[in-house]
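Entry 14. Structure prediction run on the chain below.
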Amino acid sequence: MTSAPIDRIPLHTVVLPALGIVAWLLAGKAGPGALAVVLAAVLLGNVVAAVHHAEVVALRVGEPFGTLVLALAVTVIEVGLIISMMLGVEPNPALLRDSVHAVVMLVLHGLAGLCIVVGAIRQRETEFRVEGANAFLAVLIPMAVMVLVLPNVLVSVPGPFYSPLQLGFVSAACLGLYVAFLFIQTNWHRAYFLPVGEDEAADHAGPSGRLALASLGLLAVALLSVVLLAKSLAPALEAAVAAAGAPFAVVGVVIAAIVLLPETAAAVRAAARNRLQASINLALGSAVASIGLAVPSIALVASWMGLPLELGISAGASVLMSLGFVVAIITYGTGRTNLLSGIVHLVLLAAYVFTVFAP
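Output returned:
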């Protein structure tokens, strides 16, 4: 899965979570400046530490449960970042939309495209299980459409908003799809998500139970540190985006990039070792968890606090996302990928980033 040590806990993954909480207690909310840069560095370090501890736990439980642990940890980070910034000085009702849209596009094209290119450079062609990839897409596509496109065409509430009843139904539907997917991934069809050539009985060296338990505790501390630091950095990030004259959707892209950074490293390492299936599990699993867990969680918080959620993306973004899903269906429909497939996905990523700045 990853290269996490299985016989020790690196010192920085112990120090950074504690340092993050101390920094939050001392700094409070940070404006633009050197303090914000330091806090951002500590936050990124805690994201890496959190995913490291999730990897240790994942290695203990094995595949496909391992990638599930990683996806859950990353989702907690994402929810914490979004809620912290939504509750800032100026609430942003579109932040959930921008973040989820960015996660889908970065995963579908950026992370997947990079892994395919790395795998192609090392192996020319790489193999994966079509059944597993198709299972991810079968859940991800309806989730993305219901959350990001459907609000624009319903008539109960004008604009890209859901009524409270509609939002509750869509949240429950996304959560239900995610639970159903987990049942397939971890029970009836586990083999769909195992690397090619590996059976369910394969035995892998893993960390001791004591080490895994310690990592589980440190994971909780690291996740708390990430959430607290995000709350401190929210004003600085919003001010920096405003000062640069960039669209506020960039904040959602930044959140998605922070969330996906450690998983990107793990997925690329797996692709370089000719384990593209593990890369697909990490990449598409993050997107599925991002919608299936983050959307219901944030919708619940927003309803409780009376905050509106602007979910519908623009017509142009809908077309580009639809094109991305069509290309993904073609890419994952054969069980083999090559360099051309990766380049196509990276070009679509470039088109998404360009349209964020030039809509």
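The chain has a mean pLDDT of 81.
Filed with the rest of this week's runs.
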